[in-house]
Amino acid sequence: MTRHAGDTPHIRRVARVLLIAVAFLGAVALLARFLPPAWHPRTPVDLTAAPNWLAASKLAWMRQDPEACFAAFAASAIPVTRVPDRPSTTGCETENAVRLPSVLRTIPASPTLSCPMAAAWTMFERHGLQAAARTHLGQEVAGIRHLGTQSCRNIGGGTVRSQHATANAIDIAGFILRDGREVRVAPDWPGSGRDAAFLRAVRDAACRWFRVVLSPDYDAAHRDHFHLDMGPWSSCR
Ligand SMILES: [Zn+2]
């Protein structure tokens, strides 16, 4: 075999790259071993604790790993009632769904939602919605009024299935406050009063936890509700 003059520097370069890669992987493994549970990528997210910046990523990942979602509810000591899977040949299957385990009064009661949606709701309800209510209305939310979660249909008369087809979305029409008063997306969204400010803060808070949030700012079809989903797209309007 003929040795070329350029071989030795080449071998040294490869060895250096390999050494750096091994050192990097070793550092990552060491770091993962000593990370606090809340910062470990593989630890189930605690849905009740104050969220860190990793929490939203863990929620988004649940779409690929539904068992991580059930593990998060178990780790958070929040009991969930699973809804039996229901296959579909038309893109309207129910898989890994639960009854929404909201601490709020839900009208209509106990809607079916995908587990990642229920997890995102739990975060939003505890770490976004109530803070918005306290800031803008001086009291907390006691209940929500929704327009449905599950509906075998396409988006806006098109050919693409809505996230509602698989119970991966919810439409929120109003918020019932502790004093019994209700703030509704219609007619309270327009204007510059405290109810409108509350609704805008709620929309913005929802954007942290859900993949898609559509408000009356998006189009006329959403003039009376917020659409929240955990589908593949990302939008906050
Ligand atoms: Zn919707």
Describe this structure in words.
By secondary structure, the chain is of the alpha+beta class. It folds into 2 domains: 1-34; 44-236, no CATH class. It is 37% helix and 17% strand. Helix 4 (115-137) runs antiparallel to helix 6 (194-209). The model has no long low-confidence stretch (mean pLDDT 91). The site of zinc ion has 4 residues, from strand 6.
Provide a compact summary of the structure:
With 237 residues, this protein is of the alpha+beta class. It has 6 helices and 10 strands; from the N terminus they run H-H-H-E-E-E-E-H-E-E-E-H-H-E-E-E.
Features of this protein?
237 residues; alpha+beta; three-stranded antiparallel beta sheet; 6 helices; 37% helix; binds zinc ion
